[in-house]
Design a protein that fits this description.
Layout: E1 2-13, E2 16-27, E3 31-35, H1 42-49, E4 57-62, E5 65-66, H2 74-78, E6 81-84, H3 95-105, H4 110-123, H5 139-151, E7 157-161, H6 169-186, E8 189-194, H7 197-203, E9 206-211, E10 214-219, H8 221-226, H9 231-236, E11 241-251, E12 254-259, E13 262-266, E14 274-279, E15 285-287, E16 298-310, E17 313-319, E18 323-329, H10 330-336, E19 343-348, E20 354-357
Parallel strand pairs: 3-8, 3-9, 6-7, 7-8
Antiparallel strand pairs: 1-2, 1-4, 4-5, 9-10, 11-12, 11-14, 12-13, 14-20, 15-19, 16-17, 16-19, 17-18
The protein binds adenosine-5'-diphosphate (ADP) and magnesium ion.
Magnesium ion binds near residues 42, 43, 161 and 162.
Protein backbone atom coordinates (compact mmCIF):
# COMPACT_ATOMS: atom_id res chain seq x y z
CA UNK A 1 0.00 0.00 0.00
CA UNK A 2 1.22 3.48 -0.83
CA UNK A 3 1.71 5.39 2.40
CA UNK A 4 3.20 8.65 1.11
CA UNK A 5 2.59 10.18 -2.28
CA UNK A 6 4.20 13.54 -3.00
CA UNK A 7 4.02 15.27 -6.38
CA UNK A 8 5.42 18.57 -7.57
CA UNK A 9 6.31 19.79 -4.10
CA UNK A 10 7.61 23.35 -3.95
CA UNK A 11 8.82 25.14 -0.85
CA UNK A 12 10.04 28.70 -0.58
CA UNK A 13 11.43 30.74 2.28
CA UNK A 14 10.93 34.31 1.11
CA UNK A 15 12.69 34.51 -2.24
CA UNK A 16 14.69 31.38 -1.65
CA UNK A 17 13.26 28.33 -3.39
CA UNK A 18 14.42 25.38 -1.31
CA UNK A 19 12.36 22.58 -2.89
CA UNK A 20 10.99 22.33 -6.41
CA UNK A 21 9.29 19.57 -8.42
CA UNK A 22 9.83 17.00 -5.71
CA UNK A 23 8.11 13.68 -6.44
CA UNK A 24 8.30 10.69 -4.13
CA UNK A 25 6.12 7.65 -3.57
CA UNK A 26 6.72 5.49 -0.52
CA UNK A 27 5.19 2.07 0.06
CA UNK A 28 4.23 0.88 3.51
CA UNK A 29 7.11 -0.94 5.22
CA UNK A 30 9.86 0.55 3.08
CA UNK A 31 13.07 2.11 4.35
CA UNK A 32 13.90 5.03 2.09
CA UNK A 33 17.33 6.65 2.29
CA UNK A 34 17.15 10.32 1.37
CA UNK A 35 20.72 11.18 0.48
CA UNK A 36 22.21 14.37 -0.82
CA UNK A 37 24.78 17.01 -0.07
CA UNK A 38 24.33 19.47 2.77
CA UNK A 39 21.89 22.24 1.86
CA UNK A 40 20.14 20.18 -0.83
CA UNK A 41 16.79 20.35 1.01
CA UNK A 42 16.58 17.00 2.83
CA UNK A 43 15.52 18.40 6.21
CA UNK A 44 13.02 20.75 4.63
CA UNK A 45 11.44 17.90 2.69
CA UNK A 46 11.16 15.75 5.82
CA UNK A 47 9.49 18.65 7.68
CA UNK A 48 7.00 18.99 4.83
CA UNK A 49 6.25 15.25 4.92
CA UNK A 50 5.91 15.25 8.70
CA UNK A 51 3.42 18.12 8.35
CA UNK A 52 5.56 20.39 10.50
CA UNK A 53 5.27 23.02 7.78
CA UNK A 54 3.22 23.24 4.61
CA UNK A 55 4.59 23.20 1.06
CA UNK A 56 3.80 26.20 -1.15
CA UNK A 57 2.71 24.00 -4.03
CA UNK A 58 2.19 20.37 -4.92
CA UNK A 59 0.09 17.48 -3.74
CA UNK A 60 0.82 15.33 -0.71
CA UNK A 61 -1.16 12.28 0.38
CA UNK A 62 -0.30 10.51 3.60
CA UNK A 63 -2.09 7.31 4.63
CA UNK A 64 -4.26 7.94 1.59
CA UNK A 65 -5.47 11.30 2.91
CA UNK A 66 -5.06 14.39 0.75
CA UNK A 67 -3.25 16.71 3.17
CA UNK A 68 -3.75 19.79 1.02
CA UNK A 69 -7.53 19.50 0.90
CA UNK A 70 -7.87 18.12 4.44
CA UNK A 71 -6.01 20.54 6.66
CA UNK A 72 -8.31 19.58 9.52
CA UNK A 73 -6.71 16.11 9.59
CA UNK A 74 -3.18 17.35 10.19
CA UNK A 75 -3.03 16.85 13.95
CA UNK A 76 -4.39 13.34 13.58
CA UNK A 77 -1.95 12.49 10.80
CA UNK A 78 0.94 13.98 12.72
CA UNK A 79 0.20 11.69 15.63
CA UNK A 80 0.70 8.69 13.38
CA UNK A 81 4.21 9.86 12.46
CA UNK A 82 7.38 10.61 14.40
CA UNK A 83 10.58 12.52 13.73
CA UNK A 84 14.04 12.16 15.20
CA UNK A 85 16.40 15.09 14.62
CA UNK A 86 20.14 15.25 14.12
CA UNK A 87 20.90 16.66 17.55
CA UNK A 88 19.58 14.60 20.41
CA UNK A 89 17.03 16.67 22.29
CA UNK A 90 16.72 15.55 25.90
CA UNK A 91 15.42 17.40 28.90
CA UNK A 92 17.02 17.80 32.26
CA UNK A 93 14.87 15.08 33.82
CA UNK A 94 14.98 11.32 34.23
CA UNK A 95 15.20 9.10 31.20
CA UNK A 96 11.77 7.77 32.16
CA UNK A 97 10.20 11.23 32.17
CA UNK A 98 11.88 12.12 28.90
CA UNK A 99 10.30 9.13 27.19
CA UNK A 100 6.92 9.43 28.94
CA UNK A 101 6.48 13.05 27.88
CA UNK A 102 4.67 12.49 24.58
CA UNK A 103 2.24 9.98 26.07
CA UNK A 104 1.38 12.25 29.01
CA UNK A 105 0.78 15.05 26.56
CA UNK A 106 -1.68 12.81 24.77
CA UNK A 107 -3.39 12.02 28.07
CA UNK A 108 -2.64 8.30 28.17
CA UNK A 109 -3.46 6.44 31.42
CA UNK A 110 -0.58 5.91 33.88
CA UNK A 111 -0.32 2.12 33.63
CA UNK A 112 -0.29 2.30 29.84
CA UNK A 113 2.45 4.96 29.97
CA UNK A 114 4.50 2.77 32.29
CA UNK A 115 4.22 -0.29 30.08
CA UNK A 116 5.02 1.59 26.89
CA UNK A 117 7.93 3.60 28.29
CA UNK A 118 9.57 0.44 29.58
CA UNK A 119 9.00 -1.28 26.25
CA UNK A 120 10.47 1.64 24.29
CA UNK A 121 13.53 1.82 26.54
CA UNK A 122 14.06 -1.88 26.15
CA UNK A 123 13.84 -1.51 22.37
CA UNK A 124 16.76 0.93 22.41
CA UNK A 125 18.71 -1.01 25.05
CA UNK A 126 18.50 1.62 27.79
CA UNK A 127 16.37 -0.19 30.39
CA UNK A 128 19.09 0.08 33.01
CA UNK A 129 19.15 3.89 32.73
CA UNK A 130 15.45 4.40 33.39
CA UNK A 131 16.13 6.46 36.53
CA UNK A 132 19.26 8.25 35.27
CA UNK A 133 19.26 11.91 34.43
CA UNK A 134 19.06 12.07 30.62
CA UNK A 135 21.52 14.97 30.36
CA UNK A 136 24.19 12.88 32.15
CA UNK A 137 24.24 10.26 29.38
CA UNK A 138 26.65 10.16 26.44
CA UNK A 139 25.66 11.67 23.09
CA UNK A 140 24.87 8.26 21.64
CA UNK A 141 22.74 7.31 24.64
CA UNK A 142 20.92 10.65 24.53
CA UNK A 143 20.06 10.01 20.90
CA UNK A 144 18.66 6.60 21.92
CA UNK A 145 16.55 8.33 24.58
CA UNK A 146 15.27 10.71 21.92
CA UNK A 147 14.57 7.75 19.63
CA UNK A 148 12.66 5.88 22.30
CA UNK A 149 10.63 9.04 22.96
CA UNK A 150 9.56 8.86 19.32
CA UNK A 151 9.03 5.08 19.34
CA UNK A 152 6.86 5.15 22.45
CA UNK A 153 4.14 6.84 20.40
CA UNK A 154 4.24 3.90 17.95
CA UNK A 155 4.55 5.92 14.75
CA UNK A 156 3.52 4.25 11.52
CA UNK A 157 6.01 6.43 9.67
CA UNK A 158 9.35 7.25 11.25
CA UNK A 159 11.37 10.19 9.92
CA UNK A 160 15.03 10.27 10.87
CA UNK A 161 16.85 13.45 9.95
CA UNK A 162 20.58 12.65 9.90
CA UNK A 163 20.12 10.84 13.20
CA UNK A 164 23.74 9.76 13.53
CA UNK A 165 25.54 12.81 12.14
CA UNK A 166 26.84 13.73 15.61
CA UNK A 167 27.53 10.22 16.84
CA UNK A 168 30.61 8.00 17.04
CA UNK A 169 30.73 4.84 14.86
CA UNK A 170 29.68 2.54 17.72
CA UNK A 171 26.57 4.58 18.57
CA UNK A 172 25.81 4.93 14.87
CA UNK A 173 25.85 1.17 14.43
CA UNK A 174 23.55 0.78 17.46
CA UNK A 175 21.00 3.25 16.08
CA UNK A 176 21.13 1.58 12.66
CA UNK A 177 20.57 -1.83 14.24
CA UNK A 178 17.56 -0.54 16.21
CA UNK A 179 16.01 1.08 13.14
CA UNK A 180 16.53 -1.97 10.91
CA UNK A 181 15.11 -4.24 13.65
CA UNK A 182 12.08 -2.02 14.17
CA UNK A 183 11.33 -2.00 10.47
CA UNK A 184 11.69 -5.78 10.26
CA UNK A 185 9.61 -6.55 13.32
CA UNK A 186 6.82 -3.99 13.12
CA UNK A 187 6.87 -3.02 9.44
CA UNK A 188 7.26 0.64 10.37
CA UNK A 189 7.91 2.77 7.30
CA UNK A 190 11.18 4.70 7.64
CA UNK A 191 12.54 7.74 5.82
CA UNK A 192 16.09 8.49 6.83
CA UNK A 193 18.04 11.44 5.51
CA UNK A 194 21.79 11.21 5.51
CA UNK A 195 24.78 12.70 3.75
CA UNK A 196 26.49 9.39 4.46
CA UNK A 197 26.15 7.26 1.37
CA UNK A 198 27.27 4.09 3.06
CA UNK A 199 24.59 4.51 5.71
CA UNK A 200 22.01 4.82 2.96
CA UNK A 201 23.35 1.65 1.40
CA UNK A 202 23.41 -0.27 4.66
CA UNK A 203 19.91 0.60 5.77
CA UNK A 204 17.68 1.59 2.90
CA UNK A 205 15.66 -0.60 0.57
CA UNK A 206 15.56 2.30 -1.84
CA UNK A 207 17.59 5.49 -2.22
CA UNK A 208 16.33 8.91 -3.28
CA UNK A 209 19.09 11.33 -4.21
CA UNK A 210 18.31 14.97 -3.47
CA UNK A 211 20.33 17.55 -5.36
CA UNK A 212 19.61 21.29 -5.42
CA UNK A 213 16.11 21.03 -3.98
CA UNK A 214 14.76 18.17 -6.02
CA UNK A 215 14.93 14.39 -6.11
CA UNK A 216 17.23 13.73 -9.03
CA UNK A 217 17.14 9.93 -8.98
CA UNK A 218 15.51 7.11 -7.05
CA UNK A 219 16.42 3.46 -7.22
CA UNK A 220 18.01 0.53 -5.46
CA UNK A 221 21.19 1.70 -3.78
CA UNK A 222 23.43 -0.29 -6.12
CA UNK A 223 21.71 1.26 -9.10
CA UNK A 224 22.24 4.83 -7.93
CA UNK A 225 25.82 3.95 -7.12
CA UNK A 226 26.62 2.18 -10.39
CA UNK A 227 24.42 4.12 -12.79
CA UNK A 228 24.12 7.73 -11.63
CA UNK A 229 21.92 9.66 -13.99
CA UNK A 230 24.00 12.81 -14.30
CA UNK A 231 27.27 14.40 -13.32
CA UNK A 232 26.05 15.85 -10.02
CA UNK A 233 24.83 12.48 -8.82
CA UNK A 234 27.97 10.77 -10.13
CA UNK A 235 30.08 13.19 -8.09
CA UNK A 236 27.92 12.78 -5.04
CA UNK A 237 28.10 8.99 -5.10
CA UNK A 238 31.87 9.29 -5.28
CA UNK A 239 32.77 8.32 -8.85
CA UNK A 240 36.40 9.43 -9.17
CA UNK A 241 36.38 9.57 -12.96
CA UNK A 242 33.97 11.61 -15.08
CA UNK A 243 35.63 11.83 -18.48
CA UNK A 244 34.21 13.51 -21.59
CA UNK A 245 34.30 11.44 -24.78
CA UNK A 246 32.60 10.87 -28.11
CA UNK A 247 30.55 7.87 -29.18
CA UNK A 248 32.04 6.52 -32.41
CA UNK A 249 30.18 3.25 -32.97
CA UNK A 250 28.40 0.22 -31.57
CA UNK A 251 30.26 -3.05 -31.66
CA UNK A 252 29.26 -6.53 -30.48
CA UNK A 253 26.75 -5.09 -28.03
CA UNK A 254 29.12 -2.44 -26.72
CA UNK A 255 29.28 1.29 -27.20
CA UNK A 256 32.67 2.49 -28.41
CA UNK A 257 33.73 5.79 -26.87
CA UNK A 258 36.76 7.68 -28.13
CA UNK A 259 38.79 9.58 -25.54
CA UNK A 260 42.21 11.06 -26.29
CA UNK A 261 42.84 8.64 -29.16
CA UNK A 262 41.80 5.53 -27.22
CA UNK A 263 38.63 3.55 -27.64
CA UNK A 264 36.84 2.45 -24.48
CA UNK A 265 34.07 -0.14 -24.59
CA UNK A 266 30.99 0.53 -22.50
CA UNK A 267 28.00 -1.70 -21.78
CA UNK A 268 25.71 1.37 -21.57
CA UNK A 269 23.56 2.28 -24.58
CA UNK A 270 24.74 5.63 -25.89
CA UNK A 271 22.62 8.40 -24.29
CA UNK A 272 24.00 11.01 -26.75
CA UNK A 273 26.90 11.48 -29.19
CA UNK A 274 28.86 13.51 -26.70
CA UNK A 275 29.04 11.61 -23.45
CA UNK A 276 30.85 11.42 -20.18
CA UNK A 277 32.26 8.13 -18.97
CA UNK A 278 31.61 7.62 -15.28
CA UNK A 279 34.12 5.14 -13.88
CA UNK A 280 34.61 4.22 -10.24
CA UNK A 281 38.24 4.12 -9.17
CA UNK A 282 37.91 0.67 -7.64
CA UNK A 283 36.82 -0.75 -11.02
CA UNK A 284 40.16 0.07 -12.66
CA UNK A 285 42.67 -2.73 -12.07
CA UNK A 286 46.40 -2.20 -12.40
CA UNK A 287 48.88 -4.79 -13.71
CA UNK A 288 52.65 -5.00 -14.21
CA UNK A 289 52.23 -6.79 -17.55
CA UNK A 290 49.61 -6.93 -20.22
CA UNK A 291 46.72 -8.87 -18.69
CA UNK A 292 46.15 -12.00 -20.75
CA UNK A 293 43.30 -13.92 -19.29
CA UNK A 294 41.36 -10.97 -18.02
CA UNK A 295 37.65 -10.91 -18.48
CA UNK A 296 37.82 -7.14 -18.84
CA UNK A 297 36.99 -5.81 -22.30
CA UNK A 298 39.18 -2.73 -21.83
CA UNK A 299 42.94 -3.27 -21.50
CA UNK A 300 45.41 -0.45 -22.09
CA UNK A 301 49.04 0.38 -21.48
CA UNK A 302 49.32 3.44 -19.26
CA UNK A 303 51.75 5.53 -17.28
CA UNK A 304 51.63 6.20 -13.55
CA UNK A 305 51.28 9.93 -12.90
CA UNK A 306 50.74 10.15 -9.15
CA UNK A 307 50.47 7.84 -6.16
CA UNK A 308 48.58 9.25 -3.17
CA UNK A 309 47.86 7.30 0.00
CA UNK A 310 44.24 7.58 1.15
CA UNK A 311 44.20 4.91 3.88
CA UNK A 312 43.26 2.10 3.66
CA UNK A 313 43.52 2.67 -0.09
CA UNK A 314 45.89 4.34 -2.48
CA UNK A 315 44.74 6.72 -5.21
CA UNK A 316 46.77 6.07 -8.32
CA UNK A 317 46.47 8.58 -11.15
CA UNK A 318 47.43 7.06 -14.46
CA UNK A 319 47.53 8.43 -17.97
CA UNK A 320 46.11 6.53 -20.90
CA UNK A 321 44.61 8.93 -23.40
CA UNK A 322 43.19 10.75 -20.41
CA UNK A 323 44.00 10.88 -16.71
CA UNK A 324 42.19 8.23 -14.70
CA UNK A 325 42.17 7.59 -10.99
CA UNK A 326 42.37 4.01 -9.82
CA UNK A 327 41.69 3.06 -6.23
CA UNK A 328 43.78 0.12 -5.06
CA UNK A 329 44.49 -1.34 -1.64
CA UNK A 330 47.75 -0.33 0.03
CA UNK A 331 48.82 -3.98 -0.21
CA UNK A 332 48.21 -4.06 -3.97
CA UNK A 333 50.09 -0.76 -4.40
CA UNK A 334 53.07 -2.24 -2.53
CA UNK A 335 53.02 -5.40 -4.60
CA UNK A 336 53.06 -3.32 -7.79
CA UNK A 337 55.84 -1.05 -6.43
CA UNK A 338 54.14 1.92 -8.04
CA UNK A 339 56.07 5.07 -8.75
CA UNK A 340 55.44 8.11 -10.95
CA UNK A 341 56.56 7.67 -14.55
CA UNK A 342 56.32 3.91 -14.40
CA UNK A 343 54.77 1.96 -17.31
CA UNK A 344 51.79 -0.11 -16.33
CA UNK A 345 48.68 -1.83 -17.71
CA UNK A 346 45.10 -1.19 -16.75
CA UNK A 347 42.01 -3.30 -17.19
CA UNK A 348 38.40 -2.29 -16.88
CA UNK A 349 35.15 -4.09 -17.59
CA UNK A 350 32.78 -2.58 -20.14
CA UNK A 351 29.99 -2.70 -17.57
CA UNK A 352 32.06 -0.48 -15.25
CA UNK A 353 32.07 2.25 -17.90
CA UNK A 354 28.77 4.03 -17.33
CA UNK A 355 27.75 6.69 -19.85
CA UNK A 356 25.83 9.89 -19.18
CA UNK A 357 25.03 12.64 -21.66
CA UNK A 358 27.50 15.50 -21.72
CA UNK A 359 26.11 18.76 -20.46
CA UNK A 360 27.57 22.17 -21.00
CA UNK A 361 27.83 24.78 -18.32
CA UNK A 362 27.90 22.50 -15.27
P1 LIG B 1 19.77 19.74 4.06
O1 LIG B 1 18.97 19.14 5.16
O2 LIG B 1 19.83 18.89 2.82
O3 LIG B 1 21.14 20.14 4.51
P2 LIG B 1 17.96 21.98 4.35
O4 LIG B 1 16.61 21.49 4.02
O5 LIG B 1 18.30 22.13 5.78
O6 LIG B 1 19.04 21.08 3.59
O7 LIG B 1 18.19 23.39 3.68
C1 LIG B 1 18.03 23.64 2.30
C2 LIG B 1 18.16 25.13 2.06
O8 LIG B 1 17.04 25.79 2.66
C3 LIG B 1 19.39 25.77 2.65
O9 LIG B 1 19.85 26.72 1.73
C4 LIG B 1 18.88 26.40 3.91
O10 LIG B 1 19.66 27.51 4.26
C5 LIG B 1 17.48 26.80 3.54
N1 LIG B 1 16.54 26.83 4.67
C6 LIG B 1 16.17 25.77 5.40
N2 LIG B 1 15.29 26.10 6.36
C7 LIG B 1 15.09 27.44 6.22
C8 LIG B 1 14.27 28.40 6.91
N3 LIG B 1 13.46 28.06 7.93
N4 LIG B 1 14.34 29.67 6.48
C9 LIG B 1 15.12 30.02 5.45
N5 LIG B 1 15.90 29.18 4.78
C10 LIG B 1 15.90 27.90 5.14
MG1 LIG C 1 19.50 18.65 7.08
Amino acid sequence: MTIIEAHGIRKRYGDLEVLHDVDLTVEEGEIIGLIGPSGSGKSTFLRVLDLIEPANEGSLSIFGIDTVAERGHWLNLRRRMGMLFQRPIVFNASVYDNVAMGLRYRGAPGDEIDRKVKGALEAVGLSRYVKSRATDLSGGEQQRVALSRVLVTEPEILFLDEPTANLDPGSTATIERIVAGLNRETGTTVLISTHDLSQGQRLAHRIAVMVDGTIAQTGASGEVFRSPRDRMIARFVGAQNIIPGRVVSRMAGFTVVEVGGREFLSATLPPADDVEMVIRGEDISLHRREPEHEEAENRFPAKVVRVEPAAPFVNVTIHCGCDLVSLVTARRADALALSPGMDIWISLQAKAVHLIPQKNGE
